[in-house]
Design goal:
The complex is a heterodimer of chains A (292) and B (828).
Chain A: H1 8-29, H2 44-66, H3 77-99, H4 107-140, H5 145-163, H6 168-179, H7 187-192, E1 198-199, E2 208-209, H8 214-226, H9 230-265, H10 267-290
Antiparallel strand pairs in A: 1-2
Helix pairs in contact in A: 1-3, 2-3, 2-10, 3-4, 4-9, 4-10, 5-6, 5-9, 8-9
Chain B: E1 2-10, H1 14-30, E2 37-40, H2 48-51, E3 58-59, E4 77-78, H3 79-91, E5 96-97, E6 102-108, E7 111-116, E8 121-129, E9 136-137, E10 151-152, E11 165-169, H4 173-182, E12 187-191, H5 202-213, E13 219-222, E14 226-231, E15 240-246, E16 249-255, E17 257-260, E18 264-265, H6 267-273, E19 300-302, H7 312-326, H8 336-342, H9 352-362, H10 364-367, H11 371-380, E20 382-387, H12 389-392, E21 404-407, E22 411-413, E23 422-427, E24 430-433, E25 440-443, E26 448-449, H13 451-456, E27 464-466, E28 471-475, H14 477-486, H15 488-507, H16 513-522, E29 524-528, E30 533-535, E31 543-549, E32 551-555, E33 562-567, E34 571-572, H17 575-578, E35 586-589, E36 593-599, H18 600-608, H19 611-632, H20 635-646, E37 655-659, H21 668-676, E38 684-691, E39 694-698, E40 717-719, E41 725-727, H22 736-740, E42 747-749, H23 758-764, H24 780-785, E43 788-790, H25 803-806, E44 813-816, H26 821-825
Parallel strand pairs in B: 1-2, 1-8, 2-5, 8-19, 10-17, 11-12, 11-17, 12-13, 20-21
Antiparallel strand pairs in B: 3-4, 6-7, 7-8, 9-18, 14-15, 15-16, 20-28, 22-27, 23-26, 23-28, 24-25, 24-27, 29-36, 30-35, 31-34, 31-36, 32-33, 32-35, 37-39, 37-44, 38-39, 40-41, 42-43
The chains are: A mainly alpha (292), B alpha+beta (828).
Bound molecules: flavin-adenine dinucleotide and protoporphyrin IX containing FE (2 copies).
Chain lengths: 292, 828
């Protein structure tokens, strides 16, 4: 029943985009042209293609407004988005044909380049919209981030209690492992999902990496066979299990942060570039009319 | 010591205060030197229920159509203003005794004896009972347990206490919440009579165990301990102590304060101990009273919430009226004009009171009702008169409390409409279908219909067409439920007809009404709580169930593998009687469910009388079997349905289900909800459970029998014909619906402030942007108006459908009804 945005209404806008693309090619070809007068934006066909392209860009930008006009009954946002990705895609063809690939170092090409960037970011966005949610759901296994954070907090609390009965060395190591665990961080840290957790080893003043809680888990597993009392071994074993679980949850949360980052980050390019494109486009149209 | 009065009024809530005010008026008129009445209040101040409202609560004066008739004032306003005005009236001379909880009543009219908690006895000729329905907190049951600074039965604000040792007695949710809140700044002991916190909600259970184990928190628990005694502090500021019986002997704990949260004693026990009868075992039942509010005990009158009138204004009017009646004045009650309005369009000239009596006599089922209950029924109902279409155009427009005209020959309701009101025919004729395109049945005066939807909550099955010059009473579900809860005869009468018609609809038997009634008398009505099993896979069956209300899920090969679901009006287990006796599936109630159980002999009588219908039953059965088999061969899908059922969607009619593999988490749905609903979102996308890529966010699912509608004092929660359940403007913000909703879909909220328009935000960054602001400060006006309940109304009346769905960019959000679930999960 749930239908993704590409398949919306039996690929309605995919078909429309296809027709638009074919028409543009026919129009372009009809310019004929020879070495002296190659096809370009200045012929009537060029004007038509340019106008269609500019209108498309305008309409594509309006998605930002339609998406927030919550009282609007003009189609559904899903329908708009479906049309957006198909028509945004065919725009690349329309604009390229319009310019007849006569690129140079000028404001016209700037507009073109900006458009390409918007479109590329858009395709990336489409890709993550289609693929990331499923992975995110798989990663989070039916619980939301809050619930995992709660479980992590409870786990840490538990570790703090259990470790109280251990020797001071282990205790301070475990507590530093808890304290120096890192989630999130800067944008690149969020997106790379690399583990920057650290730990303070006994008799050292500088913390070292504890990625994957590895140092802690390693040291616990080494202590167990050496434990002098059964009860001590039992406690260490319990700690090992707790840190093992901790490792899993931390990874899961890091992955959650990363995937959600993927879902949002591209809009940080897509939207500002759209605005730059609109400005460049206005200048382009303006200049071609002045320097005609 | 014993005082003697003409009249004792028990309970100084709005009802009791108003009665006392009127009694004081008569004393003044008669020039009495000593008061002839006494107002006895159990609490240390008056109107305890209202004193316990949250601070600054805006108190509403619903119902708006009713005028106030009382010596005391009351208009909508702040709790403090209302209490202050009553305080003034009290000071102007009302004979009230505080801390005088009445614990026993005996004697009879003319010489009642009222026993007080303190041991005092008061004598009175008449008693007015106005103790409300809130109940009193269960006491510790040792000497010195009266409410004081040291011993408390409520906790207003945990921040009032710092650096104290406080003992919280009790193990329910209130006790746990109080104890944890107090332990932020105090040392807290929680006293549990049992060895675990079994009565608490899961969240509280985890929280209390965590607090007990938390070594950094001054939080201690005594299990299996009961209170043996207490030592009051010598003077305020000093320590007192609590003596406990613990498994290891007696323990004495010194403390600054004791907070006892042992639940409330509902007033019912006390009421019954005064020989007042409550005829129905139902929890909500209230005692029967006559037209003058007199109970079955002569001389003992009952008014206010306890008499079944849950609003302040009604309570106050009754306080006034009851004193009039006791003084022998036969005044017309304050609602007389309403009654006149109701009957204004009837084709005869008669006093409203006489029409009332006449109608009660005309309908056999109503004859046994007490007149006051019937009066309320009429005031809350619509009187419907059918006119030929030509006259209808000239008829007076029908208002809220005047006769309602409809066109003769037209349906009163149509198949598929959501309405749950109950119709009683007084004059004329109605043609009724029991299922879509089913045969027509004729309804005669004195008979009723509409009980199917009333009981099951499902949309109407078949049409009901009214003939010319008919008169009907259309009663809202709420009033019928109240009536059925308090009047056993009405309940069983409606039930009997329900079963007969349900059998007629299911089997279309060609039997006389007597034969049908005989069968109806033999079938059994069963009730199942959610999760209870009707029958299990593999066992031999001899019966089938016809679902009255609720949803039954069929599972195969595991309790979470749901292969089919059946709703009210449908059959389950018919395979046992129409095929093999071995049950192919287990049947479990998905929500609270009622069924009619049919055994083989009754079944055979029914089907044999109408062999043609057997083919229909058989083809329906093979249809169901095909579908459930298809589902059973897709374990993933069956498990997904099991998940939806576990989330309570079995009783949904319209639920939001998000496909997690499409949802990008943009929260545009929430924003759309807020933007189309005065700035407050009624849906929380992120919360709620998920499984197998399906997510059920916290949002209203428009239940078949909405829990929220159960107990709404101003009847503000309504359902449209399309099924949307919504809250109207008459909400008083009491929070009952929030408590009653098992799905957390209702919240109380101030009105959100207005925001600048979208373009101002897009272009100039003004305001917080679309959606519900994370924090907002309500305007002074909004604070004055108070919090109101808000919930999803499924965007009723919005042509584009629900805004949340329309605003989803990826198609992840859908609103569905349970019969679409199979389609939803198949082929995922
Ligand atoms: C949170 C909340 C909000 C509400 N908001 C509104 C609103 O905005 N507008 C509205 O119209 N209604 C509102 N209601 C309903 C309204 O409070 C009640 O309908 C009304 O209080 C009923 O009045 P009463 O006099 O019958 O009973 P109560 O007000 O309950 O008074 C009963 C009194 O009797 C005393 N008492 C009890 N037992 C004994 C005994 N054995 N001996 C002596 N005294 C005893 C009690 O201490 C109490 O003072 C609200 C209810 C709640 C719970
Ligand atoms: C109303 C819309 C438009 C008009 C009227 C228009 C007009 C023109 C004209 C007249 C030319 C030829 C200039 C020349 O030969 O020197 C041209 C070239 C070009 N246009 Fe447009 N155009 C429009 C929209 C667009 C759009 C939407 C883009 C892409 C973002 C675009 C990109 C270009 C490029 C890259 C060239 C080639 C520049 C060059 O020759 O050096 N134009 N346009
Ligand atoms: C020049 C062309 C394009 C322009 C000007 C443009 C502009 C925009 C704008 C303004 C938004 C609204 C963002 C927001 O407010 O949240 C948007 C969203 C989006 N765009 Fe584009 N876009 C273009 C091309 C494309 C292409 C080619 C694709 C994909 C193939 C694409 C995919 C998307 C997607 C998936 C969204 C998100 C929709 C949502 O979350 O509501 N865009 N785009």
């Amino acid at each position: 029943m749930h239908i993704n945005l590409l398949a919306w209404r039996g690929y309605r806008y995919g078909k429309l985009a296809l027709i638009l693309g074919l028409l543009s090619i026919v129009l372009y070809a009809s310019q004929g042209g020879d070495a002296a007068q190659p096809p370009n934006g200045g012929t009537w066909q060029g004007y038509v293609l340019g106008t269609v392209g500019a209108l498309l860009i305008l309409w594509l930008s309006v998605l930002g407004i339609r998406k927030r006009r919550y009282n609007s009954n003009l189609g559904t946002v899903q329908g708009w988005t479906s049309a957006h990705v198909y028509l945004g895609g065919v725009l690349l063809l329309v604009a390229t044909l319009h310019s007849a690939a006569q690129l140079g170092w000028n404001v016209h090409t700037l507009a073109y380049a900006l458009m390409c960037m918007v479109i590329v970011s858009g395709f990336y966005g489409l890709y993550v919209y289609l693929h990331v949610p499923g992975r995110l759901a798989g990663n989070n296994a039916g619980k939301d981030r809050e619930a995992w954070l709660e479980e992590l907090a409870a786990l840490d609390e538990h570790i703090r209690e259990v470790v109280e009965s251990c020797d001071a060395e282990l205790q301070s190591m475990a507590l530093s492992a808890l304290e120096l665990s890192r989630l999130g961080g800067s944008l690149t840290q969020q997106l790379s999902a690399r583990d920057h957790s650290r730990i303070l080893l006994p008799n050292q003043s500088k913390a070292v990496s504890n990625a994957e809680q590895a140092v802690m888990i390693h040291s616990l597993s080494q202590r167990i066979p050496k434990a002098r009392k059964q009860s001590e071994a039992a406690v260490l074993n319990q700690l090992l299990a707790l840190f093992g679980r901790r490792q899993v949850i931390l990874n899961l949360l890091r992955r959650d942060i990363q995937l959600r980052g993927f879902l949002k980050i591209w809009l940080l390019l897509h939207i500002p570039l759209t605005i730059a494109l609109l400005v460049a486009l206005v200048i382009h149209i303006f200049t071609v009319f002045i320097y005609w | 010591m014993s005082d003697r009065y003409h009249l004792a009024i028990v309970g100084a809530g709005p009802a009791g205060l108003s009665a006392a005010g009127r009694a004081a008026y008569y004393d003044a008129v008669n020039g009495a030197t000593t008061p002839s009445y006494v107002l006895l209040e159990g609490f240390s101040t008056f109107a305890k229920t209202i004193q316990k409202y949250q601070k600054g609560k805006h108190v509403m004066d619903e119902p708006g159509f009713l005028d106030l008739r009382s010596e005391l004032g009351f208009t909508a306003g702040k709790r403090e203003q209302i209490l202050a005005s009553w305080q003034q009236s009290l000071e102007a001379g009302i004979n009230i005794r505080y801390d005088s909880e009445v614990v026993a009543i005996d004697g009879e009219k003319g010489s009642f004896r009222l026993g007080l908690q303190s041991g005092d006895v008061i004598e009175a000729e008449h008693i007015v009972f106005s103790i409300g329905t809130q109940g009193n907190p269960r006491a510790l049951g040792v000497s010195g347990d009266a409410e004081s600074d040291f011993v408390r039965y409520t906790l207003d604000d945990p921040a009032d206490f710092k650096d104290e040792t406080i003992i919280v007695v009790g193990a329910g949710d209130a006790a746990i919440e109080n104890a944890i809140a107090l332990s932020d700044y105090n040392k807290v002991f929680i006293i549990n009579r049992r060895n675990e916190f079994s009565r608490a909600k899961d969240g509280n259970l985890n929280a209390v165990l965590a607090a007990i184990n938390d070594k950094n928190r001054g939080f201690y628990c005594r299990y299996e301990s009961s209170v043996a005694g207490l030592e009051l502090p010598a003077c305020s500021g000093q320590l007192g102590a609590l003596i406990l019986n613990t498994p290891s002997g007696e323990e004495r704990i010194e403390c600054h304060r004791i907070i006892a949260r042992l639940g409330t004693v509902p007033p019912r026990k006390f009421v019954e101990s005064c020989s007042i009868e409550i005829s129905s075992p139902s929890m909500e039942a209230v005692p029967d009273v006559d037209r003058h509010y007199q109970s079955n005990v002569p001389g003992l009158y009952i008014i206010g919430a306890l008499a079944g009138y849950p609003l302040i204004k009604q309570a106050m009017n009754q306080g006034y009226d009851v004193i009039e009646f006791i003084h022998g004045k036969n005044t017309k009650p304050a609602d007389y004009p309403l009654l006149q309005g109701q009957f204004s369009g009837l084709p005869y000239v008669m006093d409203a009171e006489d029409v009332l009596d006449l109608y009660q006599q005309r309908v056999p089922m109503f004859r046994r009702m007490n007149p006051l209950a019937f009066r309320e029924l009429i005031i809350e109902s619509r009187i419907i008169v059918s006119l030929p279409p030509s006259e209808l155009a000239q008829a007076a427009p029908s208002g809220d409390h005047s006769t309602h005209f409809v066109a003769a020959g037209e349906p009163l309701y149509r198949h598929g409409e959501f309405s749950t009101s109950f119709y009683t025919l007084v004059e004329g004729e109605v043609q009724l279908q029991l299922e879509q395109d089913g045969p027509w049945h004729t309804i005669k005066p004195g008979q009723f219909f509409g009980e199917m939807s009333l009981i099951s909550g499902r949309p109407r099955q078949g049409d009901a067409v009214v003939s010319q010059d008919s008169i009907l009473i259309e009663t809202p579900r709420r009033i019928m439920v109240k009536l059925m809860n308090s009047n056993e005869e009405v309940r069983s009468g409606i039930d009997r007809v329900f079963v007969m018609r349900a059998l007629q609809a299911a089997f279309r038997p060609q039997l006389s009404l007597d034969e049908l009634a005989a069968i109806a008398g033999r079938v059994e009505t069963c009730q199942f709580k959610a999760g209870e099993v009707l029958f299990s896979e593999g066992e031999e069956g001899e019966c089938l169930h016809l679902i009255r209300s609720g949803t039954v899920m069929l599972t195969r090969g595991g309790a979470n593998m749901v292969v089919a679901q059946s709703h009210s009006g449908e059959l389950v287990g018919q395979l046992a009687l129409m095929g093999t006796p071995k049950r192919a599936d287990s049947a479990t109630a998905a929500v609270r469910t009622e069924t009619v159980l049919l055994r083989r002999p009754e079944f055979l009588t029914l089907v044999n009388s109408q062999p043609e219908h057997v083919a229909t039953l058989q083809s329906r059965l093979s249809d169901t079997l095909q579908k459930s088999n298809a589902m059973a061969s897709q374990p993933q899908a069956a498990r997904a349905i099991g998940f939806l059922m576990a989330e309570g969607l079995g009783e949904a009619t319209n639920a939001l289900v998000i496909d997690e593999t499409l949802c990008v988490g943009c929260d545009n749905c929430e924003r759309a909800c807020a933007e189309t609903h005065n700035g407050i979102s009624r849906l929380n996308r992120q919360s709620g459970a998920s499984m197998a890529g399906l997510h059920v966010p916290v949002s209203c699912r428009h239940c078949e029998l909405p829990h929220c509608m159960k107990d709404c004092p101003p009847d503000a929660i309504r359902r449209t014909a399309n099924g949307e359940v919504f809250i109207s403007d008459s909400c008083i913000g009491c929070g009952n619906c929030e408590t009653n909703c098992p799905y957390g879909a209702i919240k109380l909220s101030y009105q959100a402030p207005k925001k600048p328009g979208l373009l101002s935000w897009l272009l100039f960054g003004l305001g917080s942007g679309p959606g519900e602001p994370e924090h907002f400060k309500p305007s002074a006006a909004a604070q004055d108006a108070g919090k109101k309940a808000v919930k999803c109304d499924a965007c009723m009346g919005r042509s584009g459908g629900p805004a949340c769905v329309q605003a989803c960019p990826t198609g992840a959000a859908l609103r569905l009804s349970p019969n679409q679930f199979a389609q939803l999960v198949e082929g995922r």
